[in-house]
Amino acid sequence: MILYKYISEDSLEYIFGANGISIKFTPFCDFNDPFESYGASIAPHDEGSLIHLTMRHEINNKLACLCLSKDPLNVLMWSHYADKHKGFVIGIDTEDAGFEDEANLIITAKKGDMDYRGERDNVSVSVTHENIFDEHVSRKLLLSKSLHWAYENEVRIIKRTALLDNQSGHLIHKIENRCAVKELYVGINNDNYKSVIMENSCLENLILNGNVNLYLCDFKEGTWDLDKRPIIYRNPIAEHAMHDVFESLKDIIMAIDRNKVNGD
């Protein structure tokens, strides 16, 4: 299964490093939704006790999440998470990346579909230090979100923070199989992608060797949607391009196509 991560240009450099591929997991307290972990209420342990109210703090300390999407061409996702269409989307094979490993993950990619709801679920979940790593607990508390977020088409992978590498405060999952990344999408406003790829030897080799398919996002003719077209990467040093408004005949044709509505 291929799932997609929307990233900025800076994140691309961090992911494809000299020591392999590094994917950052994030504690739930650092997400942009104030309702994170409130998919259900946490039941009191004992009558009159308030200990249960501390368990969300425990979840933030002991669990971390990787958020992926099923759709690499979502206009809003590009705007919100890929630097206003100036970033990238990477397509990750979840099996090759270790994201289906039930021995090391609380929620695998195959089980991580978000449940988007119009209302919060009126149920209580008992959360203790003993069951905080149970799949059932994570599913109830961490895989439910408001319908406001349904456009993200999100899949979550949840892992114990203790099993991640802490690198300067960042929780990192190392992917040993570099070929786990299958696709790279370039944002429609990204004019610098050739230089970015050239300066990252790990990524450049994957592309030149045919391990990563490279796509450029563009207008889908006559619609408000995005489309993709495959591109062949060549090292920019080996190319001599005109630096003008339109660098080539291909750019002129692209501008004509973008201006079309209903094939006129």
Explain this structure.
By secondary structure, the chain is α+β, with helices and mostly antiparallel strands. It is built from seven helices and 15 strands. The protein has helices at 9-15, 55-62, 75-81, 135-142, 193-198, 201-208, 249-258; strands at 2-7, 16-17, 20-25, 41-42, 63-69, 88-93, 115-117, 124-125, 144-146, 154-160, 165-167, 170-175, 181-186, 213-219, 226-230. It has a five-stranded mixed sheet. Strands 2-3-12-11 form a four-stranded antiparallel sheet. It is globular and about 75 Å long. The relative contact order is 0.19.
**Series of secondary-structure elements, N-terminal to C-terminal:** EHEEEHEHEEEHEEEEEHHEEH
* Proportion of residues in extended strands: 25-35%
Distance between the termini: 38 Å
Q: How many strands appear in the DSSP assignment? A: 15
What's the Cα radius of gyration?
21 Å
Oligomeric state? single chain
Q: Count the DSSP helices.
A: 7
Which sheet architecture does the biggest sheet show? 5 strands, mixed
Calculate the mean pLDDT score and round it. 89
Any idea what the shape is? globular
Spans where pLDDT lies below 50 across 5 or more residues: none
As laid out across the biggest beta sheet, the strand order is 1-6-13-14-15
Q: Structural class per helix/strand content?
A: alpha+beta
